[in-house]
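The protein record minuted underneath.
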Amino acid sequence: MSVAPATEKPPLPRIGRTRQALLRRLIDVVALPGSVVPPLERAMAGDILLEMLFEADDEARRLCALRLVNTIDAPRRVLRYLGQCGIEVAGPLLGDNKAYDASDLCFLVRAGETDHRIRIAERRPLDVSVADALITSGDTLAIQALLRNSEAVLSETAMDELVHLSRAHEKLTAAIAARPELRPSQAMAMFWWADGPTRADILNRQSASRAELIENCSDVFPMAAEEGWNDPVTRKTLQLIERRQRNRAAIEKSPFDSLEHAIETAAEKGMSPATAQEIGYLAGIKPVTVAKLLSDTGGEGLAVLCKATGLRRDYLHLLWNALKRPVENMEGRPHPLWENARNLFETLSVVKAQTALRYWNWSMSSSFSPRMGVANSTAGTPPPEDEAGSFSTTKRTARLLFGSSD
């Protein structure tokens, strides 16, 4: 039984001089300024040119792309097609052509490859919607290029997504931390998976002094005291603002005389769960917050805890020993984690350390609250859950930190 030979597609005919000449003439027409060619005629020439480009080779497409780089009136359909071609063709257009609008660029982000997205990410300036599309793509190389672009505009929701992405791609954290759009709540969440230098950068750049808040709210503190601190919303808010960090009321119920005494005991006998909880109470933070600080493998969080509560530097050493962490490496030199913690303690101001500690306590305790929304005092009903999730800083931060707070 004979087998019929496979049919082969006939080779494409070699482009003749006539087609080359016609292609060049059409390119000439669409590349002319808008003041020379009537819009309808340019549109017609663009439609014809596009059909010819479908059958052209990359050399002809590259020639067309190079001619249209500086043409702001070029037919957008032609530009979108060329922008999807190989990067040798699309690159010059994606990097420099000003005729693309935000919609075109968002389309090309979705349709293109990594090289295309990088060229788009490097455009100056870059619209906020295009930046959103690049971040949504999840292409980390393109996102790195975007973060390096000082003329790219990043939205707050985009920064939330970037912080979320940085959990799985830690190499993004330093570039995200350097962006001016980063907000303190986002930075304080990202702190926990950032490297040592980025952690120090976050704490120094994103921790506010609270001076204006304290001054403007100073008359409210005695009012709250007169009412016996019975309003939970007021109490929680003022705890974020006030100067003092330690919980003085906790000493009356604690088996320890002071925060220092609790740390000394932990260093002598080892850190037990009960002692860790008491350290948290005395420091004015919730159990979940102190658990996060004591279990963090870095050590910068411990430096923040000690600085914020006014402890001397030797108590950072005692706390370090209580957690059985190495102070020296195998060569007898200071262990890098200990050195980072010690250096941060020396350089970080008390007010910045307090701000960071309170942000962490705020978001972590909110993550474990039964409801995120606060009851509306006028209507008597809580806000919708989606409203709390969209607008609540604590819930958004908790979602960044824990993945989900529901």
Remarks:
- Residues 19-182 form one domain.
- Residues 368-383 have pLDDT under 50 and may be disordered.
- The CA atoms of residues 155 and 387 lie 19 Å apart.
